[in-house]
Specification:
CATH topology of the largest domain: Rossmann fold
Strand order of the largest sheet: 7-6-8-9-10-13-14
Strand content: 15-25%
Helix content: 40-55%
Length: about 400
């Protein structure tokens, strides 16, 4: 049996068991993310274990409003139709008071209207599309929140590093031809423009392309000594492998999706070290991160996408803090309370009023840093003279 099928079966059983334990008085929170369908599934699985760890801790501390908290898991298979179906079932059948998810930005953008109309708060722990939290910002109450790495914000960090890393100020961008990749090109181009730099080349490749030497040959001919890749793990891996084919290994930067072990497996131990990635946290960042990493690895020994577990944990803790502050599970009251919670100790940081009426992003570029793969298959924080020299003014958005 294929790994994806085994995972899907286990998750379906787990979801059924969780749902079966729900009592009328319980507070139910849903988790809806890809856990078996696409290259993003590993991120969704890590997020699921972080979500469940948070619920364990909430119940260990006495639950919420004197009631037990129960998590209901749904695998959206990485497809918008399934994700929409899951959201509808969670709200209508499971009577959730809030949802954590998804992993895929396209799925979130497909169903944002559902929780917004039904007044169910959602905290997005993985998906990064910039407009997820802004679509309904002008509504009396916006029900979409996020604790993840926003595309534009992580590009601000990658762009700042690229500008200082490039010795000739010749920076290129290469991205897949999906909506995700093309939005990344837009963000990267605009961020570099803030530094008065125009990319010397902008190239695209299909999400199923494995040989990208033609595009890279053009980038190399343009003289770029620094390249920003905007693609999920398998696409970025194919870019780096193609770089090796033409003996062209410039300073290479990528988004946090490359934390997936898929990148490491495709490139191999030595070549995996070549990419520098944006990250919100790593297991070596603080004591709470280390402790969560050890807990999650009991269920997911091969996890590399720890940031997803940490972000899901913090998303769930923040939602719980809002329910406690509101003194209610009413969606409108909980969403309003999310804009007021403060002093919430998470894994990534202590959240002091992370959300406001106009800003529903729990993390910002100031919270991010860079990470790299080690040859042993672990991900660690990356620091060099450039990262040490970066100042707030460099992180232009």
């Amino acid at each position: 049996m294929k790994l994806a099928h085994r995972i899907a079966g286990a998750l379906t059983l787990g979801a059924a068991l969780l749902a079966g334990t729900v009592q009328a008085q319980d507070i139910v929170i849903g988790y809806n993310a890809d856990q078996s369908g696409t290259g993003v599934a590993e991120l969704g699985i890590a997020g699921r274990w972080g979500f469940e760890a948070a619920i364990e801790d909430i119940n260990r501390a006495g639950g919420l409003l004197g009631r037990k908290v129960v998590g209901v898991i749904r695998d959206d298979l990485g497809t918008p139709p399934k994700s929409i179906q899951n959201m509808t079932e969670l709200i209508d059948n499971e009577k959730v008071v809030g949802v954590i998810g998804p992993a895929n930005s396209g799925n979130a953008l497909a169903w944002l209207h559902i929780p917004q109309q039904r007044k169910i708060p959602v905290v997005v722990p993985i998906a990064t599309a910039t407009d997820i939290t802004t679509r309904y910002v002008k509504e009396p109450q916006n029900y979409l929140f996020r604790v993840s790495m926003v595309d534009r914000e992580q590009m601000a960090l990658l762009g700042a590093y690229a500008v200082k890393a490039s010795k000739n100020q010749k920076i290129a961008i290469i991205a897949d031809s999906t909506g995700y990749g093309q939005a990344g090109i837009k963000d990267a181009t605009e961020v570099l423009a803030l530094h008065n730099i125009k990319p010397v080349a902008v190239e695209k490749f299909g999400p199923k392309d494995t040989d990208i030497t033609s595009q890279l040959t053009k980038i190399k001919a343009a003289g770029a000594d620094t390249v920003i890749i905007y693609a999920i793990a398998d696409g970025a891996a194919n870019v780096v492998k193609s770089m090796e084919k033409i003996n062209y290994l410039p300073t290479t930067l990528g988004t946090w999706g490359n934390l997936s072990s898929l990148f490491y497996r495709m490139t191999g131990p030595k070549l995996s070290e070549h990419i520098i990635m944006a990250a919100s946290t790593t297991e070596d960042s603080n004591a709470r991160a280390k402790e969560l990493g050890q807990r999650v690895r009991k269920n997911f020994p091969t996890m590399t996408t720890f940031a997803c577990a940490a972000q899901s944990y913090d998303s769930t803790i923040l939602l719980a803090a809002a329910i406690k502050l509101a003194g209610s599970t009413d969606g409108e009251k909980v969403a309003a309370a999310l804009e007021k919670v403060t002093g919430v100790e998470g894994v990534i940081k202590t959240y002091n009023t992370p959300f406001t009426k106009d800003k529903h992003e729990g993390l910002a570029v100031e919270d991010f840093y860079l990470a790299k793969w080690k040859q042993d298959g672990t991900v660690v924080r990356f620091e060099d003279e450039i990262t040490k020299s970066l100042k707030p003014a460099d992180l232009k958005k």
